[in-house]
TrEMBL record:
InterPro entries assigned: 2Fe-2S-bd, 2Fe-2S-bd_dom_sf, 2Fe-2S_ferredoxin-like_sf, 2Fe-2S_ferredoxin-type, 2Fe2S_fd_BS, Beta-grasp_dom_sf, Diverse_Oxidoreductases
Keywords per UniProt: 2Fe-2S, Iron, Iron-sulfur, Metal-binding, Oxidoreductase
Record region (Disordered): 150-169
Keyword Iron-sulfur in annotation: yes
Ranges of residues in domain 2Fe-2S ferredoxin-type: 1-76
Iron as UniProt keyword: yes
One Pfam match: Fer2
GO MF annotations in UniProt: 2 iron, 2 sulfur cluster binding; metal ion binding; oxidoreductase activity
Protein name in the entry: (2Fe-2S)-binding protein
Length: 169
């Protein structure tokens, strides 16, 4: 049995200790925000926070995580209120969304240690592959999230949908 904390809840997995964290989260804990992308640690879709550092859940065994604290996208914020989530929504960065949980986790780990990252800092901290090609907008959104986290600026609100009313003659 392997014991550690996931999203502030103690868990005990009765699985082979060699089981990748990704499958324990998805199959045993029903935390499906952590995505399977490549299985080789190259794409970042399975990124989670382990004791404050970025880890790829497809490459970590549950046995190696005994006693640690794991945070998944579900545990980052119940209401999508984390500055990174707010910035991605406010700036319309998200396209298909498959890679977004891993990107949000990578950016949140970055901003915890560096709330004023440079473009190079952001590029170095976000190892994720996004097939939609959101990278230029992503850098701007993470910069905005850093400003918000520092209290320098509020994130823009999502625009209200405009409803046209037909002219009546």
């Amino acid at each position: 049995m392997t014991r550690f904390t996931v999203n502030n809840q103690p868990v005990e997995y009765r699985m082979d200790p060699r089981t990748p964290l990704l499958w324990a989260l998805r199959d045993a804990s029903n935390l499906t925000g952590t995505k399977y992308g490549c299985g080789t640690g190259d794409c970042g879709a399975c990124a989670v926070d382990v004791d404050g550092g970025l880890r790829l859940a497809c490459q970590e065994t549950i046995g190696a995580l005994e006693g640690t604290f794991v945070t998944t996208i579900e545990g980052l914020s119940k209401d999508r209120g984390h500055p990174v989530q707010q910035a991605l929504l406010a700036t319309n960065v998200v396209q298909c969304g498959y890679c977004i949980p891993g990107i949000v986790m990578a950016a949140s780990v970055l901003l915890r240690s560096n709330r004023n990252p440079s473009e190079d800092d952001i590029k170095g901290a976000i190892p994720n592959i996004c097939r939609c090609g959101i990278y230029p907008r992503l850098i701007g959104a993470i910069t905005e999230a850093g400003r918000s986290a520092r209290g320098d600026a509020a994130l823009p609100q999502e625009p209200e949908p405009q409803v046209e009313t037909p002219a009546v003659e």
